[in-house]
Amino acid sequence: MPPGHLHVKHELQELRTARRKVDYPEWKLLHRQPIYEKDRIDPVDPTAMLKLDPQALATFPEGYRHLAYIQTCIGNTVEMDMPMLKGHVVEELYRRGARWLPGGALER
């Protein structure tokens, strides 16, 4: 590992919503959306000191803050409006599911 790098483990806890269609004899997945609950970064070596930029970390949504931090550090673009446990995005996800269950169109 290059000097100045730290081997870490990222843990993400998410709920998943999935919409399935029964097309006998098979089930087919129509839509899958994670709902980000919480995440964390831990050094693999418990004696190592993990230093994160608190100002940069604070700019990301709470439910997937550490994942977003890691992703941007390696140059990826992160969506800032993914569903979490609370808020208008997850509420709308559940409303779309409620409209779909009785036979409505699948909205993504």
Give the low-confidence spans.
Answer: none
Number of strands: 2
Whole-number count of domains: 1
Counting DSSP H or I runs of 4 or more residues, the number of helices is 3
Describe the structure.
With 108 residues, this protein is an alpha+beta fold. The chain has three helices and two strands. It is 24% helix and 31% strand. The chain has helices at 54-57, 65-73, 88-100, and strands spanning 8-23, 26-43. It has one domain (8-100).
Brief synopsis:
This protein is an alpha+beta fold. It is built from three helices and two strands.
Q: Which helices and strands occur, and which strands form pairs?
A:
Blueprint: E1 8-23, E2 26-43, H1 54-57, H2 65-73, H3 88-100
Antiparallel strand pairs: 1-2
Keywords:
alpha+beta, two-stranded antiparallel sheet, 3 helices, 24% helix, 108 residues, 31% strand
